[in-house]
Amino acid sequence: MKKFAYIMDSTLAVSPDQFADLNVTVQPLYVIVNNQPSKDLYEISATEFYSALEEGLLASTSQPSAGEFLETYERLKADGYTDIFVFTIAGKLSGTNQSAQSAQSMIDGINIHVIDTNTTTAIGSLVVKDVIAFAESNQDPQAVIDYAHDAFDRVEILVYVDNLDALKRGGRISAAQAAIGGLLQIKPLLSVNNGVIEVATKERTFKKAIRKVVELSEKRPIEKVVLLHSSKDDLLQAIEASFKEVYPDITYEVADLSPVVGVHIGPHACGLGILYKK
């Protein structure tokens, strides 16, 4: 009989022990502040990290090495698992998926299934939980993989950011796209679909921008949603009020944007992580 274990990277998680009771290991990426690396979520909290950004400290990120993934694989193999499903941040946004795949080739005697979620943020963890529930009644690894891909293909992130400077520094968007955010104090709204960050639209004021984030989600019925914010109560309150106005009957979860994500979008961001219905 097969025995499944799961790994998701820290950009998809809410906390290191999230879903620990479901055999889920959170593999941390690294946040580097003032040349000091810290394990995302494990050694630096979202609140600590965003406070550092507010103070003007420069930050960068680093993916886990193949060796770190291999250590996790070996531990789970020793625990008797036959298959490991590994969920990573979009390969177009990070080399984490490549590290997981490289480690896959370094171990025998256990089946490793590396899945590029094509997304990030805590909405990913909700999809992982759904995948685990499906796997409980289906022992076919390929069926689990197909289920995961179908679900992640229905995920979208819509987020307000104060400016695009951090994304430009990290090379996630072009200089031409970044220039949009500097024009006439325009407030850019980003979308993440299939691992690609795009400027979805732009507004002139913060209030209009927040309303637009929610309006952009109305194109398809929502199955699950997470309200995302950069560890700031005012941003959370703004996106929460706007969401409730449009969707008074939809339940939602709330999560910080992880420090690794925060490095690339800056300290003033909020939005929605959405799983749309089929």
Automatic annotation (TrEMBL):
<dbReference type="InterPro" id="IPR050270">
    <property type="entry name" value="DegV_domain_contain"/>
</dbReference>
<dbReference type="Pfam" id="PF02645">
    <property type="entry name" value="DegV"/>
</dbReference>
<dbReference type="GO" id="GO:0008289">
    <property type="term" value="F:lipid binding"/>
</dbReference>
<dbReference type="InterPro" id="IPR043168">
    <property type="entry name" value="DegV_C"/>
</dbReference>
<keyword id="KW-0446">Lipid-binding</keyword>
<dbReference type="InterPro" id="IPR003797">
    <property type="entry name" value="DegV"/>
</dbReference>
<protein>
    <submittedName>
        <fullName>DegV family protein</fullName>
    </submittedName>
</protein>
